[in-house]
Design brief:
alpha/beta; 7 helices; about 35% helix; globular
Length: about 200
């Protein structure tokens, strides 16, 4: 059996440590922690790929090497049918969750996330799992301070983390990599019960 883990984000050094690249950060942490090979550019899927194994299963890590809103094309090159989709996990930044928050979900809408919209459109299904990584700040009392307005949101998600947020994000990335391992070990339903 083969699992596909996709880290959404934007290519290029200028986006490497931005909120919109939280998905890529988590998949990179998973790759390093589990000694998967270095990334190679797969020209046919226009993505960075690393292939390894997890127990008896094969695992393909994929980072689309094109911008977030057209990531679906890269994912569709590996996900050919409904069974493949059910063994796919897409990791991405989520403004509806606080920094350090995360959730596993599946069979849901994109929630307005352009990268996820692109994947749903390209795969023609919502059946894949998502690991949603929170990137929104909170008030001192813990209330979500989600940015408002298209321009403000765009600047926010492609902007770098503040120093205090970067520390928090490091913990999130580590927890995200552990959540991916849990999905591979126990399946998405059990993992969702534990992570959520």
């Amino acid at each position: 059996m083969q699992y596909i883990i996709v880290g959404l984000g934007n290519p290029g050094e200028e986006y490497a440590n931005t909120r919109h690249n939280a998905g890529r950060m988590v998949v990179e942490a998973f790759r390093k922690k589990n000694d998967f090979p270095e990334w190679t550019l797969d020209k046919s899927s226009k993505a960075l790929v690393s292939r390894g194994s997890w127990g008896k299963n094969k695992v393909v890590l994929l980072e689309p090497d094109n911008f977030m809103n057209v990531s679906g094309k890269s994912v569709a090159s590996l996900v050919k049918n409904a069974k493949d989709a059910e063994r796919t996990v897409v990791v991405y930044d989520d403004l509806d969750l606080p920094l350090s928050g995360m959730k596993i979900s599946f069979n849901r809408s994109s929630g307005g996330h352009k990268g996820l919209e692109s994947v749903i459109k390209a795969l023609k299904t919502r059946a894949f799992a998502r690991l949603r990584i929170g990137v929104s700040p909170t008030t001192p009392s813990g209330k979500l301070k989600k940015p408002k307005g298209d321009d403000v949101i765009l600047d926010f998600i492609v902007g770098p983390f503040k120093k205090s947020e970067a520390e928090e994000m490091k913990k999130s990335v580590k927890k995200g990599a552990e959540a991916l391992a849990l999905i591979l070990d126990e399946g998405r339903e059990i993992a969702a019960g534990k992570v959520n």
